[in-house]
Amino acid sequence: MAHFMQDLRPVRTASDIPQGLRHTPLGRLIDYHNCGRPPRKHHKAEVLVCMCMDNKKQLSLPDNFAYILRTGGGNMRYNEFKISYAVGIGGVRHVAMIAHDNCGMVNLASKRGKFVSGLVKNGGWTRKDAMRHFLKNAPRFEIGSELDFVRAEAKRLNLKYPNVKVLPMFYRMADKKLYLLKASG
């Protein structure tokens, strides 16, 4: 994890939120979660949060503030219609792409045996079907480096939705805080 730290910009107080984000839904997202901003009433979602399905992380947000899409690794490659719904029907103009450390979608090949055995034991699958399922899908859902992936995914979505601000962020399990990403060099 130490190698990530030089790429992360901590936000401990509201004054740490960059000026350009402060009065936006993305700034409020960080302020609510990291800084304990008191919740206010929201009548509609202001932001779409795209994050991993990992059960060890939860965001502190008020009701009705955000749409939240959770997928393995925060991989939105097969969820564009849901994003389009939030933008087209929900009117969302801000998206937070949130990666986290120790993501299970990194180095999926090393998890093949456990994955297959788990599907056989817990899911009632045959070993052959479980292996076929893993081999077919793991390459599609492998994300590689969490930081590289979230940056690339945010860039891809910014191009796909030019009127929407898509911001990559990082969630550290150790302190349960959101971090901004420094510009990649």
If you had to describe this structure to a student in words, what would you say it looks like?
With 185 residues, the chain is of the alpha/beta class. It has two domains: 2-105 and 145-181, Beta-carbonic Anhydrase, Chain A (3-Layer(aba) Sandwich), CATH 3.40.1050; 107-142, no CATH class. It is 38% helix and 19% strand. It has a six-stranded mixed beta sheet, with helices on both faces. A hairpin with a 4-residue loop joins β5 (165-172) and β6 (177-181). α5 packs across α6. It is globular and about 55 Å long.
Quickly count the domains: 2
Strand content: 15-25%
Helix and strand composition category: alpha/beta
Known CATH architecture of the largest domain: 3-Layer(aba) Sandwich
Which residues sit in consecutive blocks of at least 5 with pLDDT less than 50?
none
Question: What is the CATH third-level topology name of the largest domain?
Answer: Beta-carbonic Anhydrase, Chain A
Order of helices and strands: HEHHEEHEHHHEE
The dominant shape is globular
- Our Rg estimate from Cα atoms comes to 18 Å
* Overall CATH class of the largest domain: Alpha Beta
Note the main sheet.
6 strands, mixed
How many helices in DSSP terms?
7
Rounded to the nearest angstrom, the distance between the terminal CA atoms is 19 Å
Number of strands: 6
Average pLDDT value? 94
